[in-house]
Amino acid sequence: SIYAGTRGHLDEIPVGRVRDFEVGLLNYVRDRKPELLTKIREVGDMTGEIEEMMKSAISSFKASFK
Q1: Runs of H (alpha helix) within the chain
Q2: Quick check: 61 pLDDT over 80?
Q3: Are 50 and 39 in contact (CB under 8 A)?
Q4: Above pLDDT 70, what percent of the chain?
Q5: What's the pTM?
Q6: CB 8 within 8 A of CB 44
Q7: CA-based torsion, 27, 29, 35, 41: positive or negative
């Protein structure tokens, strides 16, 4: 969620909904993109590959966030 906030992914989210977005995003990644969490644990650093995976996950979740 820090990544999403510092990269502008939360700019369109109303301040009162940011927490809901963060919780939803984490659940989305756990349920639908577990390979992203595995990669982060294995590598332990922000690589270009991980960043692209994160961008994709955020965009996908954001499209369905209401």
Answers
A1: 2-6, 18-32, 34-43, 48-64
A2: yes
A3: yes
A4: 98
A5: 0.87
A6: no
A7: negative
